[in-house]
Amino acid sequence: MGRGHLTVLDDDQVRTAMFVHLGNLAALYPEGIKSSDINRFVVNDRPLKLVVQPGIWKPADLQAALTIRTTYTAPDQAPPYDDALVGGGLLKYAYQGTDPQRSDNRALRAALEQEKPLAYFVGVAKSVYQVHFPVHVVAERPAERAFLIAIEEAQRLIDPALIEALTPDRRSYLERLVRTRLHQPLFRAQVLRAYRKQCAVCHLQHTDLLDAAHIIRDTDATGHAVVPNGLSLCKIHHAAYDRNIIGIRPDLVIEVRPDVLLEKDGPMLRHGIQEMSGQRLTVPTQRAAQPHRERLEQRYEEFRSAS
Fold first, then answer.
1. What is the predicted pLDDT for the residue at 2?
2. What is the DSSP-derived secondary structure letter of residue 268?
3. 43, 56 in Cβ contact below 8 A?
4. Which of 28, 102, 257, 267 has the most CB within a 10 Å radius?
5. What is the longest distance spanned by two Cα atoms in the chain?
6. Which residues pair with 91 in a beta bridge?
7. What is the pLDDT of residue 83?
8. DSSP per-residue codes, 46-106
9. Can you give the pLDDT at residue 80?
10. For the segment 85-94, what is each residue's pLDDT rounded down to a tens digit?
11. Quick one: which of 230, 225, 209, 55 has its CA closest to 129?
12. Which parts of the chain sit beneath pLDDT 50?
């Protein structure tokens, strides 16, 4: 049946095609996908935008929401979902506005009732997104004006009403799983983008060989996944930094552990590590993205103790 000259879209077909489209883009652009590329989506010869202004998006032909979105935050600010993970790592996604009967809230409620999978876009930069799919709406909390979103399939299999009854170990595992899936790709994408996709020590530009390293380790309570607590490092210099083989002073000068400077080995040690001593770290031009001096001081003291 047509609506004018347009074929009415089938819900399941749209979602299946969308996931294929997003999967292809994610493979091409692991550090973040431009909204213009995301919106080059065509199903049954019909173009269909996936990233639009509202946080909850339902195309006119569908009954249930198709995508949800969390906007980009500044480099020195924690992502909006950072404090929104509840028991078992479920994401608490706020209503649009305060009216539960607003059209986009009804659309997300329909996704819950119909058990429809969605795509979740998280802003890496202006008009650039990481994408997570499929995610599912598993509950609604009207008193909190929010829905609960399962990022991992393992969460979807648990009755949300029983999340609080899970063993502490099980809850901790699920929360760690979700934080890893949400935080690490976003942190990597934002750090590499801030450092222009090169190692801050040696300027290597092969993104497959680059990591987003924490200044204050992520195992520390203050080791937040924000750009000023990150450094773009190649895998060699990331490992060397984590093991206190190299250190970075608060004035951004690189030091090499004294005993390592005396070692004799192959060209990698000499050119890749020893010759970095005394060089200055290359940092982002945007002030908000530069490493915090206090964090560098704290981590440098650890390096000095190891030396």
1. 43
2. I
3. no
4. 257
5. 78
6. 85, 149
7. 55
8. EE--S--SSSEE--TT-SS--EEEE----TTS--GGGG-EEGGGEEEEEPSSS-TTSHHHH
9. 66
10. 777 788 899 9
11. 55
12. 1-4
Chain center to CA of 85 = 14
Please identify which residue in the block is written with the tokens 């173009």: 47
Q: Which residues in 54-87 are b (16+ Cβ under 10 Å) and which e?
A: ebbbbbebbebbbbbbbebbebbeebebeebbbb
One-letter identity of residue 132: H
The pLDDT value given to residue 8: 76
Per DSSP, the three-state class of 197 is: coil
In degrees to the nearest 10, what's the CA dihedral of 110, 112, 114, 115? Answer: 150
Q: Is the Cβ–Cβ distance between 229 and 198 less than 8 Å?
A: no
DSSP class of residue 266 equals -
Answer yes or no: are the C-beta atoms of 133 and 120 closer than 8 Å: yes
Sorted by where each starts, the structural domains of the chain and their CATH numbers stand as 2-173 (2.30.280), 191-306 (no CATH)
Contacting residues for 251 by C-beta, under 8 A, at least 6 apart: none
Which one-letter amino acid corresponds to residue 95? Y
* Pair 188, 31: CB distance under 8 Å: yes
Handedness of CA 28, 34, 41, 181 (dihedral sign): positive
- Strand 90-94 and strand 85-86: the pairing is antiparallel
> What CA–CA distance (Å, rounded) separates 170 from 156?
14
Give the three-state DSSP class for 203. Answer: coil
Full DSSP string of 159-191: -GGGGGGS-HHHHHHHHHHHHHHHHHHHHHHHH
Report d(CA 189, CA 19) in Å as an integer. Answer: 21
β-sheet bridge partners, residue 53? none
SS3 of residue 232 by DSSP: strand
Q: Which residues sit opposite 187 in a β-bridge?
A: none
